[in-house]
Amino acid sequence: MNAPKEAVIKMYAPREEIYPREVKGRYATLRWACVWLTQLLFYGLPWIQYNGRQAVLFDLGARKFHLFGLVLWPQDFIYLAGLLIICAYGLFLVTTVAGRIWCGYACPQTVYTELFLWIERRIEGARSARIRLDRQPWNGEKVGKKAAKHAAWLALALWTGFSFVGYFTPIESLLAGVRHLDLGGWESFWVLFYGLATYGNAGWLREQVCKYMCPYARFQSAMFDKDTLVVTYDRARGEPRRPGARQPGDKLGDCIDCTLCVQVCPTGIDIRRGLQYECIGCAACIDACDTVMEKVEKPKGLIRYATENALANGWSAAQVKHRLLRPRVLGYAAVLALMVAGMSTSLALRVPLKVDVIRDRGSMGREVEDGRIENVYRLQLMNTSEEPRLLRIAVAGLPGAVIVDEEVVEIGGAATRALPVRVRAEAGGKAGSHRITFSVTALDDDSVTVREEAAFIVPH
């Protein structure tokens, strides 16, 4: 008796290669405008100079973040946390209004996939030529085109990694290190790591990042409601569909089943099946369908941005816009505006001077030669502005308390200085710990004043 044959059960479907067709239209133009804007900012900002230094530099070694005229220190981490919260909340608000519009126009994965696809089309040709090239056996033409494409991809990816590291290491010194083959170990690692990540995500993984790796696709539905703008297919107008011309009296929809909406989709879905989590809201299918409707002399908008309520109730564009400003959206916008206003006010009122007072624990209060009591402190001064300052140091809180050392000190722009300070007060007071207050004031601006309390020890 023959033994039963083993059956192989696949736990997942193999990936089908997607060859997005190039499309032109108003949304494609808008998408490319976003590509240009984001990449001009990303690649250009590290090269802008401000006050003789790089305008945007996150100097981890010196523990200083330079944002044009603003210098942030580790103590200002709260601003970074606030910025991340604002960005996340802004993304939630945009998603509630217009679905995954961020994914379709400004997400780095979408932007770099567009750039890599542009390179692929310039070298390998249009969609049909790329399909034909992949199916043909390896020969000189195929090897040449594939090598040229991947070389261009790697060049762009490495330049992207270089620009990314340029935000953390001064980009001119980084360029000099590359030119002289003298790049540091960590810089080399991150240039290669970020470059290869860009090459892998935008060149190879592409839609798989959006479909399987990005968590945003999974929880976006929690922010959608029936008045959220999403890319939709008007089934009532388009069905039943059939290829070919329409004759008077035909009970057919406007969709001619050309499948161009599927061919241009970067994630390979058929929007006519309804909203799917793979849809990134790029509107490429809208441009393709509008072009076809124009050719067959039908109204545009068979595929369009609309809401579930708008399709169900046949609302006009004005009614859709009116529903966009619903209480949920207004509430989100109000909270976001308050957070932005609060953070902006905090930055505007931020005193560009920080002071930490540390009492010398190795030297308790002692009586000195003139019969007075002396305590020793260390003042950690931090000038968060770009200009050097002269600072006056004073102390109050005990009768006759004075600073023995220099009362006026200089500190450079965006610099720190540790300063030993001896404070003496009249003897005869109550033994124990007493509160005193140090005040540090800029001589050129009385509003730049910081006060810090400390303990003054009177021995028994």
In summary, what is this structure?
This protein has 460 residues and is α+β, with helices and mostly antiparallel strands. It has 16 helices and 16 strands.
Ordered list of secondary-structure elements with their pairings:
Elements: H1 26-44, E1 49-50, E2 53-54, E3 56-59, E4 64-67, E5 70-72, H2 77-98, H3 101-105, H4 108-124, H5 127-135, H6 140-165, H7 171-179, H8 185-205, H9 207-213, H10 216-219, E6 230-233, H11 235-238, H12 260-263, H13 284-295, E7 303-306, H14 308-313, H15 317-324, H16 327-348, E8 353-359, E9 366-367, E10 373-383, E11 389-396, E12 402-403, E13 408-411, E14 415-425, E15 432-442, E16 445-458
Antiparallel strand pairs: 1-2, 3-4, 4-5, 6-7, 8-10, 9-10, 10-14, 11-13, 11-15, 12-14, 15-16
Helix pairs in contact: 1-4, 2-16, 4-6, 4-8, 6-8
Q: Which percent bin holds the helix content? A: 40-55%
Q: If you average the pLDDT, what whole number results?
A: 91
* Shape, principal axes of CA atoms: elongated
Number of strands: 16
Rounded to an integer in angstroms, the radius of gyration calculated over CA atoms is 32 Å
Percent range for β-strand residues: 15-25%
Number of helical regions: 16
Q: Point out poorly predicted stretches.
A: none
- Report the end-to-end length measured between terminal Cα atoms: 103 Å
What number of structural domains do the residues give? 3
